[in-house]
Each structure stands twice: as C-alpha cells, then as structure tokens.
Amino acid sequence: MKLTLKIWRQKSNSSKGEFKTYIHDHVSPDMSFLEMLDVLNEGLVKKGEEPVHFDHDCREGICGMCSLYINGRPHGPLQTTTCQLHMRSFKDGETITIEPWRAAAFPVVKDLVVDRSAFDRIQQAGGYVSVNTGGVPDGNAIPIAKKIADEAMDAAACIGCGACVAACKNASAMLFVSAKVSQYALLPQGQPESKERVDKMVAQMDDEGFGACTNTKACEAECPKSIKITNIARMNREYYSSMFTNYEVTVSGGGD
Amino acid sequence: MALTGLFLITFLIIHCTINAMIFLNDGGVTFSHWGHFMGTNPVIRTLEIGLVAGFLIHIFQGLLLIKKNRDSRPVRYQVVAPAPNSTWYSRSMGLLGTLLLLFLIMHTAHFWIPNRANQFATGEELNLYQMMLSIFADPLIVALYVLGCISLAWHLLHGFWSAFQTLGLNHQRYNAIIHFVGTTFAIVVPLIFALMPIAIYLNWVN
C-alpha cells in the first residue's frame, strides 16, 4: 500500500505547529496504525530527520495511551483504539490526516502527543474510595445485584484515552467523568463519599476548561470501550442530588 | 437550557392548541374567544412575564454555552468527519436556535408587539384573526413562517429528549417513550403551526 500522510508537527507547546506531508510506500494492510507510524519513523531517523512523536504503550487496546485524530475521527474510522486499528481499514493511495486531540484542557506537548493530566487531576479530586474497607471481604459477602455489578464494571472499563473529549464538538469530558463517578455510585463501597465525590470531580472538570455536554452522543459512538451516555445522566442525577442534599462540612481540625 | 427548554415546550402546547382553533373555520369566533382570554386574563398576563423571561434566559444560557464550548477548543481540527457519530441537528442547536430567534423577532413584530402596544395605548385588543388573514396573504411571509416551523422541528427533535438526559432522566424503561413522545411532538406541533399560514394563504380558512 502507498499512502499520503498529512501529519501535525509541532516542536513544543509554545511553538507554532503545521501540517507536513509524507509519502509512505511501505505499508502492509496487516500493520496496525501505530506500526505504520513506526516504519515511517524508522525512515525518518535513517534520513536524519526528527521522528513523529505519538503516545503509545500496551498496544493491546487496554491502556488508553494511544490517541490520534485520524481523518476527522478519534482513533480513526473504527470504534476501537488506534493500536487496534489496522491499515486494511484504509484504501491504497488514500490521504490520511493525523492530528492530535484538540482541547484547551489537553495542550499539545509535541507533534501528536497531548498532555492528558487533566484527567488525572479529575480522578485525584474524588475518583477513589478513602474509607478503610478492611481486609478482602468473602465472596458474595456484599449484597449486590449481578446487573448492577455489571453496570459498574462497564463504567470501570473506561481507559481514560480522551476520545470522548476529542470527538465532542464542545470538547466536553462528561463521558469520562461520568464513567468514573458511576463506577462508585453504583456500588456500596462508593456510597459514603458519593455526594462529595461528584461535587469535587465536576468542579475539577470545569476548572480544567472542558466544554459542556449538549447530548450529541458523539462520545458514545466513538468510545473504544463503549461507555454509554446513561452514565452522563447518572452523573447529572448524582450532581443534582448532591446540590440539594449535600451539607457543607467545615473542617475544625481534631474532630472537635 | 433543559428547564427553560421544557418550559418553552409547555408554552408551545398552549400556543399551538389555541391557534389551531382557526381550523374550525368559523370566521375566527372560537379563536378570538380564546385569544381574548389569553390577552386579558390577569393570571395569564402574569404568566406571560414568566414566558418572556423563559425565552430570554433560554437565549442567554444558549449564548453562554456556545461561548464556553468554543473556548474549550481554541485550536480547531483541520479535518472533521462527525457524520458517523452524531446527527447534524444535534450539533447545530445554536444555528437552529438563531434561526428561531430571527423568526421570533419577525413573528412578535407581526402579532404580539402591535397587539400589546395597542392594549397599553387604548385598552383595546386588535383583531388578530383579521391580521392573520392579511399578513398571510403574502407568499414570502408564508414561506418564512414555514421555514421557521422547519427550524423548530429540528430544534425540538434534539431538544426534547436532550432536556430529559440533562436532567438525568434516562432510564431503560422510559427512554423509548421519551424518544417517541419527543419525535412525535417535534413533527406534529411544527406541522400544525406551518399549516396555519399555508391554510390561510390557500384560502382553506377565511
């Protein structure tokens, strides 16, 4: 296969980026998208040019590290991660435009690499259980319906790749945050801190400069882990419930 | 957006029902009766202030939302292909809303503003039925009204269920009925509205 690649090149966050066109004629349809870029980079290194920087790690579709906005869609034309996308999904002679995720909250680090630590900070704001839960409980000791456990597991499948933000016309992170809120909101272990959690995570999300949800469902359609927008509605419910019933706690220190 | 949107939807139901009285074709007797009630009843007139506020808040919230969402992506994509992941009208609520605002300015300038202005000046109501007959004699106005109704239909097609989703009302058992009612509402109400200028222009109602 022979491809024309239009790739976003940007030296650093502060410098101005631009598209550069590369002709790539050593592409096999069996290559994954990232392997195709590896071969391109090998050629660039041999020529003494700066290779194209892009994020990747496990290459098994489970770590959420790879990104890339390919031909106008996050992770390319299939609903999967970029590492699981193969060149057979493209036509011989096709021109492929590769851009980084675009969002105010995801600044470009270099070329196609963006800084997604905004997601980490949202998670740190409340996406955890801090109560001491003791040792591992016996199997089935915590009463929970199978379908609720499944629903929580589906939400927990989110790998935090940021495709939802990239796909959203508003660069909104609602799908990510709602998945992280849901995985606790559905389970008994998450209940003690549920109101505080949604408050803090939503506040952090707004602080990071993500947009607001207008329910276009683009995130759900592009999410490689099929996270559903029912999570967004659940987070909205949690948020309103917290808004009306959560009480302010003033920390006086020492518990007295 | 969701709360004001649903509030405006309830207004549409009343507006549409009363205006549909022209289809009785009784020379506007029933229509004028209810028009008189809506124009003079003190309770309705008080609610009208809420309605104007509802429109203004909905518009203002919309503008704030567009501003926030634009700011959250300062560098745009070179290539976007959103067609496979979302519908064009769900992505175009701002545009459809702007078209509706333009329509609303024209529409209130035709009926509501002159009528209320006259009520304030003389205490008398204008004959809205006669005004409809004369205004809808112009094919250009009829076409603009139909375009307004088409914008309304697309706006509602996304807006109705979207309001429920924003309020957290998403439930496997009720999603189908919310979507069904929303789609039906988005087709039926604008259709009835669009038929009004058409019927008058074609002399079905006179």
As laid out across the biggest beta sheet of chain A, the strand order is 2-1-5-3-4
- Number of extended strands of chain A: 7
**Helix-residue proportion of chain B:** over 70%
State the secondary-structure class of chain A: alpha+beta
How many β strands of chain B by DSSP?
A: 0
In one word, what is the shape of chain A? elongated
Spatial gap, N to C terminus of chain A: 72 Å
Distance between the termini of chain B: 39 Å
Relevant CATH superfamily of the largest domain in chain A: Alpha-helical ferredoxin
Mean pLDDT, all residues of chain B: 95
The topology string of helices and strands of chain B comes to: HHHHHHHHH
Q: Helical percent range of chain A?
A: 25-40%
Tell me the count of domains of chain B.
Answer: 1
Biggest sheet layout of chain A: 5 strands, mixed
Provide tags for this entry.
heterodimer; A: 256 residues; alpha+beta; Ubiquitin-like (UB roll); Fumarate Reductase Iron-sulfur Protein, Chain B, domain 2; 5-stranded mixed sheet; B: 206 residues; mainly alpha; 9 helices
Describe what you observe in this structure.
The complex is a heterodimer of chains A (256) and B (206). Chain A has 256 residues and is an alpha+beta fold. Chain A has eight helices and seven strands; from the N terminus they run E-E-H-E-E-E-E-E-H-H-H-H-H-H-H. Chain A has helices spanning 33-46, 117-126, 146-156, 163-167, 174-185, 194-207, 218-222, 230-245; strands at 3-9, 18-24, 69-70, 73-74, 95-99, 108-110, 113-114. Chain A has a five-stranded mixed β-sheet with strand order 2-1-5-3-4. A two-stranded antiparallel ribbon of chain A has the order 6-7. The N and C termini of chain A lie far apart (72 Å). Chain B is mainly α. Chain B has helices spanning 2-19, 29-40, 42-71, 88-91, 93-110, 112-122, 128-135, 139-166, 172-201. In chain B, helix 5 (93-110) crosses helix 8 (139-166). In chain B, 77% of the residues lie in helices and 0% in strands. The model of chain B has no long low-confidence stretch (mean pLDDT 95). Chain B has one domain.
